[in-house]
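Tutorial handout. Part one gives the primary structure; part two gives the three-dimensional structure as tokens.
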Amino acid sequence: MLHTTEKIVTNILRKRIEKKTEHKLREDQFGFRRRKGNRGAIGMLRMTLERILDIDEECAGFMY
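Part two.
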């Protein structure tokens, strides 16, 4: 019975903490948040780096 009570109290505390902190975090902050996992951040970083490399290759072609 104690284990079930601990889970309930933990969920209540987690939800209260999320309500207090979610509005203070920016949209580009990832990590241990709902719908803001690290996988998404890594994907966005990879896309950005690929675009930068493509632009660098295009600019290098104009120099020679």
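Part three, for discussion. The CA atoms of residues 32 and 38 lie 8 Å apart. The two ends are 75 Å apart (CA to CA).
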